[in-house]
Amino acid sequence: MSDRNKLLQELTEASGLPGYEEEVREVLRRYLEPLAQIRQDKLGSLLALKESSQGRNGPKVMLAAHMDEIGFMVTSITEEGFVKFVPLGGWWEQVLLAQKVIIKSKDGDIPGVIGSKPPHILTEEERKEIVKIKNMFIDIGASGEEEARRWVRPGDPVVPAVSFTPMKNQRLLMAKAWDDRVGCGLIVDIFKNLHDMDHPNQVFGVGTVQEEVGLRGATTSASAVAPDVAFALEVGIAGDVPGVKRHEAQEKLGAGPSILLYDASMVPNIKLRDFAIDTAEREGIPYQFDVMPRGGTDAGRIHIHSQGVPSLVVGVPTRYIHSHLGIIDRDDYDNAVRLMTAVVTRLNAEMVRSFTG
């Protein structure tokens, strides 16, 4: 396995729900400590600084990627020993039933499976409806409430139980939590590229917390960094599957990283957007555009920090986000690393001032 795939495997297989990002933070810390100065804000976001040859005088460039993934939290235990739960982040109920999960208890991992009332005894009307999360439970094999309470307790996080898997062609990679471990991986690989490069900027790689429940870590980390320009490194919604019209989701696997033209939380700085496009074309890096009328990213908070921060979202197209498994193309990931490395090294104080001039 390549070093880059090993990094992506470690990041995606780590557990990190909103408010429970410690495992992911430790993976990022281990990879970034040889490359940067590391600190942490009081909400838990990890901040890595790669200084320029000019020390602390260059523009502050913030590369943000959220460490948290969508998952669940234990709320209660039934008298029969089944676990009730609530979602952390946006889930679509129809992808949940019969999925294997892991409850991260204080005493270790507890395997379970999401279940509901058997379809054989549903009424005809019930069969037509999607089962709601409130009517689901997690079966952990407990004999009853007393035994279940010895194993788990309310507040324990619950994550999908899946493994990082290269697909048949070895180029497509299947895993959980690409949203947004793909961005976390980009930060590490960009910092590796910058390690032996001279550039005029202070580059902050920030693994943010609690993005999936309200972009919270972006708010506190933007205050800690006070960036001059920012990029949210994210997934994009790949629309290259049956039933999706091109205008609904323009991105395709293998066509390059995406530049987001609009989402519900931000209209990007136009000059910064054009600078990224110009950089991609100069470097011969494929890219594609997309819009996201619903949803937002960390850039939605960062760009309104203080008096405003020129910001842009760059993504890696991903199939099946907000489910147990997603798929990316390594070529898109590699080209996103190339693009963002080139963008960072081309930026300078004069260029940054021009974005708001």
- By CATH, the architecture of the largest domain is named 3-Layer(aba) Sandwich
The separation of the N and C termini measures: 47 Å
* Total domain modules: 2
Rg, rounded, reads: 21 Å
Strand content: 25-35%
Q: Total strand count, please?
A: 17
Task: Provide the succession of SSEs.
Answer: HHEEEEEEEHEHEEEHEHEEHEHEEHH
CATH H-level superfamily title of the largest domain = Zn peptidases
C-alpha geometry? globular
Coarse structural class: alpha+beta
- Could you name the CATH class of the largest domain? Alpha Beta
How confident is the prediction overall: mean pLDDT?
94
Feature tags:
357 residues; alpha+beta; Aminopeptidase; Elongation Factor Tu (Ef-tu), domain 3; six-stranded antiparallel sheet; 10 helices; 17 strands
Describe the 3D structure.
- The strands form three sheets. The chain has an eight-stranded mixed sheet with strand order 1-2-12-3-13-16-14-15, sandwiched between helices. Strands 5-4-9-6-7-8 form a six-stranded antiparallel sheet. Strands 10-11-17 form a three-stranded antiparallel sheet.
- It is globular and about 65 Å long.
- The model has no long low-confidence stretch (mean pLDDT 94).
- The protein starts with a helix and ends with a helix.
- The chain is α+β, with helices and mostly antiparallel strands.
- It has helices at residues 3-13, 22-32, 124-127, 145-151, 178-194, 216-225, 270-283, 299-302, 330-346, 349-354; strands at 37-40, 46-50, 60-66, 71-77, 83-88, 100-105, 108-115, 137-139, 157-160, 165-166, 172-175, 202-208, 229-237, 258-263, 288-292, 311-318, 326-329.
- Helix content is 28%, strand content 27%.
- A hairpin with a 5-residue loop joins strand 10 (165-166) and strand 11 (172-175).
- The relative contact order is 0.18.
- It has two domains: 3-69 and 176-354, Zn peptidases (Aminopeptidase); 72-160, Peptidase M42, domain 2 (Elongation Factor Tu (Ef-tu), domain 3, Beta Barrel).
- It contains ten helices and 17 strands.
- The longest helix is centred in the middle third of the chain and has 17 residues, at 178-194.
